[in-house]
Amino acid sequence: MLQYATRRLLLSIPTLLFISFAIFMLLQLAPGDPMAQVPLTVPPEVKEKMREALGLGEPAHVQYWKWLVQVGWTEPKVFIDWLTRDSALLGWLPDTNLYQGELRVISWQTRSPVMDIVIQRIPQTLWVVGVAYVVAILIALPIGVYSAYRQYSVFDQAGTFVTMIGFSIPPFFTGPLLIVIFSVQLGWLPSIYDTTHVVRDWESFKVQLQQMIMPVMVLALQITAQLSRYMRASTLDNLNQDYVRTARAKGLTEAIVVMSHVVRNSMIPVVTVIALGVPAIFGGAIITENVFKVNGIGQLLLTALFANDLPMVMTLTFIFAVLIVLFNLIADVLYGILDPRIRYD
Question: Domains along the chain?
Fold first, then answer.
């Protein structure tokens, strides 16, 4: 398994290089000029110097190579220095000084390093998107298993009805609907997510939970609807297999048959949906983050697109590509853990 994971990681390097080059060339075809927002009072020679500082006066292949070096070499050194600097305060790791002032990926919109902005936005996204995904998994898997085990029961019919609602209603409808009900009419929950809120004690933690409830509900509804249907279909397929009848004939209890045999084998196709859904939900949370004013990765990507901030857009899309490749590998590794018959020799 270790050799397979190492081989897959090595093969992912040319894949990511090709993806990054394709993204870069596509973004080069996008219309617009980042210098369009510069005031008219700025002299032309100053504008030209600003254009050269942003790398706009160089050929496309030179811009791509510089971006690749900055993302693949400079930014990891900055990240390692940041980790070791904070860890050194606790005495865990020695402080490093790998970054020596090299040029970093600069946002055309904010004129600041792209990765600094991304690191600032990640906690907000994890608070909302991460919690929503975990909640959806914890709810969807038991619902899918029980719906399959009690096929065509009242519980199964109700679950099918709720999942159809989750599939049919988009977030830009459920989000404002929850705001109208719980914020405007009832006044229970805040309608705007306060990204400046800091959790220091139990009271501030309760405030954080209150402002998380509605965006988490919107995202979890969609994810639960998808995962529960996959889990139900996979469980139904395994309940009719010969090994289930054999396990029952041996005298095993129904709980052991379902939990130890059926659920484990049913998780194999669902693992793919869960693993590949992690990077997808980061990009799919754009609407929800904008509805509730969550300054996360999704809203950052949307504002960068509107501002024609190509370094920011390219870096974020490349991060999504890395997450897809990484979680695809995690899914393949989990296959071997869930099913001993799968071997990567």
Answer: 20-104 (no CATH), 120-338 (1.10.3720.10)
Q: Per residue in 199-224, pLDDT tens?
A: 788 888 888 888 888 888 888 888 88
CB neighbours (10 Å) of residue 147?
A: 25
pLDDT at position 239 is 83
Paired tokens of 107 = 């946002």
In 3D space, the residue among 226, 216, 323, 330 whose CA is nearest the CA of residue 280 turns out to be 323
Distance (Å, rounded) from C-alpha 179 to C-alpha 121?
Answer: 23
Euclidean distance between CA atoms 81 and 75, whole angstroms: 10
Listed residue (280, 288, 172, 149) closest to 226, CA to CA:
280
The widest CA-to-CA distance across the chain, in whole angstroms, is: 86
Kindly tell me if the per-residue pLDDT of 90 is higher than 60: no
150, 142 contact by CB (below 8 A):
no
The tokens describing 38, both together, are 């510069």
CA–CA gap between residue 178 and residue 176 (Å, rounded): 5
Phi-psi region of 248 (alpha: psi -120 to 50; beta: other; left: phi over 0): alpha
CB atoms within 10 A of CB 42: 11
Q: How many CB atoms lie within 10 A of CB 209?
A: 13
Find all residues with CB under 8 Å of 3, minimum gap 6, and list them.
Answer: 344
Helix or strand (DSSP H, E) at 66:
helix 60-69
Q: pLDDT tens across 21-71, in order?
A: 888 888 777 666 666 666 667 677 777 776 666 666 677 777 788 888 888
**d(C-alpha 269, C-alpha 69), whole Å:** 38
